[in-house]
């Protein structure tokens, strides 16, 4: 540890919370959260113990996001990108919903590792897209084309899954069960839009895919009357009224920010602002701290990952379209995590209002809270 937690004794806080010190304080919190997250990192498997394959992509993305604003963690980030690329299984060794690990051992017994995108695939299209975003984030930090090419290859594979059912388009959740859900399509939009700003030679292809996805998405019933996004579509292609998960209010924001950068159109940020506002109205408590519908051990390690993803994308929207409410949500959530939801080992629980409950702390709750601390540090 580089600094003592004792520094944050309440009596000192008024001095620390002034001017530029606030930013430094937020960075130090994120750095400490990263050190605790890396206690779960398994150098041999290139993955984080206690969580699943898709969660790993989100750990990697959050680390990249911190490295983009904090040069002191770039070395750690570079190591993780390279080690994970070389050691992690390129396809999910345990397909299906992630299971809670009963011990702190790794869920992975088989190490793989490949920069070959056709091997870096899963039986769930959303998982593939999480990794595409993670490798794009690694590229943003390193400018190493290996990562960008891998993301492009993953996206190329996803385009082959473009569907024919609801409105003649969209990406189903996976190749077999046909469920059309919001997250897979939000991710497809976001990957296409991110690539359009990073691969000049194929910019128009990626812009076209992003617009095609967004036009299709808005023509389906995903977005409810109050502008929140439900989980997915019924077999008859109408909104299924299923849970308004925080990450579904988030991924679309980053996608629209990137699309607006590549192909500006005022409606993109207008839509993003409506969805973000509706998400906050639905998910924030009276202290502007974000919650999700499931905050107990039953949701580990999938549902416990979601809130950080919302914060990461809300921060992207705040940068493109600043709003005091977004700032308040990001800062209040981060402050509450630090003050109310952190145990003596520096680990975070799933309920950001606290307290951290011993039974449901793992690398998903850690990296989700870390995402919020990174968003606060990036403001
Ligand atoms: C990347 O990881 C591989 C496998 O662990 C290692 O052999 C190689 O030296 C690493 N490359 C860099 C640049 O650190
Ligand atoms: C990538 O993996 C695929 C599928 O395993 C294989 O057919 C292809 O030859 C590999 N490409 C390279 C360049 O190794
Ligand atoms: C902007 O986007 C909206 C919604 O997708 C679309 O209807 C409109 O044609 C776009 N405007 C331009 C100038 O492309
Ligand atoms: C918006 O609608 C969803 C149901 O689709 C509901 O869960 C949520 O509470 C609503 N939000 C508000 C602010 O009423």
From TrEMBL:
Tell me any Pfam family this protein matches. Glyco_hydro_76
Keywords attached to this Swiss-Prot or TrEMBL record, sorted alphabetically, are: Signal
Q: Which residues form the signal peptide?
A: 1-23
The regions listed as transmembrane in this protein's record are none
According to the lineage, what is the superkingdom? Eukaryota
Against InterPro entries, the record matches this protein to: 6-hairpin_glycosidase_sf, Glyco_hydro_76, MUG_Protein
**Biological process (GO) annotations?**
carbohydrate metabolic process
Q: Does the keyword Signal apply?
A: yes
Annotated protein name in UniProt: Mannan endo-1,6-alpha-mannosidase
Source organism of this protein record? Penicillium cosmopolitanum
